Amino acid sequence: MLRKLLLLSLILGLYACSDKFDLNEAIGNLEGTTNIGDTLFVQQFPIWEGFNHPEAMIVGREPFIYVADTENDRVVMLNIAGDNLGSIDIPHPTALAQDYGLNLIVCGEFDTLGTTFSAVYKINLFDAKNIIADAKVKRILPKSSLDYSNPQRKFTGAAVFGNGVYYISRTGTINNSPVNPDNSILMFATYDDINGNKVDTLIGRVPEIAPDGTGLVSANGITSLTSFNKNNIDIIVTLKGDNSFKTQWWTYVVTPIYQRYESKLSAFSSKLMEVNVFERPEGTTVDPSDNLYVADAGKDSVYKFSSFGDLQQAFGGETLYPDKPLNEPHDVAFFDRTLYVLDTGNNRILRFILSTELD
Hints:
mainly beta; Neuraminidase; six-stranded antiparallel sheet; four-stranded antiparallel sheet; 1 helix; 26 strands; globular; disordered N terminus
């Protein structure tokens, strides 16, 4: 009961404070420029390389760009010009977020007694004055005997909110428990203890999310979480489980009868909500107009949807440029008119600027 009351108080406190194109339509290109409908994405050079199967990327609040350089076991910091500003060792990082105190939250791995467990770390960049190599790293998970009992559990995504709350998505094979199924979203709160130290506390699981559902509001194989830089706790989730709707926008609804996440868009109301639009979406981002970008590693493509879920652009595969198509893109980011694409299979970051914004 105490956890439920705390959850409600956190949520209520936070609230207080173009043309459509067929996904299979061939899209032309001209000297590195992808022309889709009324919008022109112009590729920027040079291409950013030097990674080894990177699986996550964000634009931080400073802003710096952070890359989970997965097979190099590190998180890399870049400036907007693409200069490498340093890195920090994190075993097999696969997901990133940054809170409003400039801490990085990273999903990675942890080895102990010959067993590898999925793990969550927090990197304190503020105290290190943004020198990432000097930053202190704190492991948030695993930390209890219960965490060590199930090495099949994987932490797959992170999303942060302005009230000190953050979510961690988790997947696994044991989902018949009504109390603690593997497929879940965990909720943490950060607060100051009596000594002024920041403490991360697990509040519990976000309620009323089906662990193995095949429809809306399911945690079946979550691959990423994305929050909005707004005064709400809406999230975008991507899933690769046995689910018909593999990218969903959830909004939190509070009524006198219940409080829970519901789908922002009704099923079949838009291209985003059509069955089997995606194959293996791994990452998303939103721009200031709430347009949604999805990186689908299964279809080697990136899609842009309006805030109503209407498809506006789609590019990738051999439609980008035939000699070097996208290969399993795992993430996207948007900042200052520029779309960043993490081209995981090609170990690089591509950048595209919207020509409608060019001077």
